[in-house]
Amino acid sequence: MTAPTLPPCPVCQADYTYEDGTQLVCPSCGHEWSAGAPADAAEAARVWKDAHGNVLQDGDSVTVIKDLKIKGSSAVVKVGTKVKNIRLIDGDHDIDCKIDGFGPMQLKSEYIKKA
């Protein structure tokens, strides 16, 4: 009897995927997806929400709701800092933006609210 062949990771195309309950997991990049649904459908259905549950879209303006320390620097992004024209991305830090006075950076959606 041969073992079932699992599909490669849809993100990094690695062949090392394994099953974890009903999910498939890629140990190379950490991506998880449903074993029953196609990966493209799961990615297309992704909805980003701010700390208050409002749906975010590319180009939205948001406001920081917590002082955020910048890794590798002594600078802090203060509460109330307005960020314009965000771009939504996949990953742990799911907002890509430019903050005046700080430059390009990535933020977590749990620390912002829609303006």
From TrEMBL:
It comes from the Bacteria. Residues 5-34 form the Protein YjdM N-terminal domain. InterPro entries: YjdM, YjdM_C, YjdM_N. Residues 49-115 form the Protein YjdM C-terminal domain. Pfam families: YjdM, Zn_Ribbon_YjdM. Belongs to the YjdM family. This is Alkylphosphonate utilization protein. It comes from Ideonella livida.
